[in-house]
Design a protein that fits this description.
binds adenosine monophosphate, globular, 24% helix, five-stranded antiparallel beta sheet, 3 helices, alpha+beta
Length: 113
Amino acid sequence: MGDCIFCKIIAGDIPSTKVYEDELTYAFRDINPQAKVHILVAPKEHMKDMAECAKRTDDLAGHMMKVCVKIAEAEGLENGYRLITNKGDHGCQSVGHLHVHILGGEKLSDKMG
Ligand code: AMP
């Protein structure tokens, strides 16, 4: 686990507002929401980003996308939402444990960068 804050959240050592959990993923509300609904979906297994996840032989990346859609529907985001996963310095990734942001609940900015 090391010093990974999301590993500690998944282990229950740091509190979080859990939204969803299954055998592979854990989802919780972002502590600094950038939209009315802002949820993070992370794999329980530590990996740094989607590039690492995509190199696996299993379908964890696809599973994470399906979990995002399931949560968005459960949150009532029928008017749409945005899924983002940041990677590395240029992507402004600040936590080095893969996560997908679900943003919605209101009209989002049309600027992506
Ligand atoms: P990123 O910049 O893509 O790595 O996103 C990291 C996200 O984690 C940011 O949106 C932070 O607000 C969020 N975050 C950091 N610490 C916590 C925490 N303890 N609980 C919930 N969200 C957090």
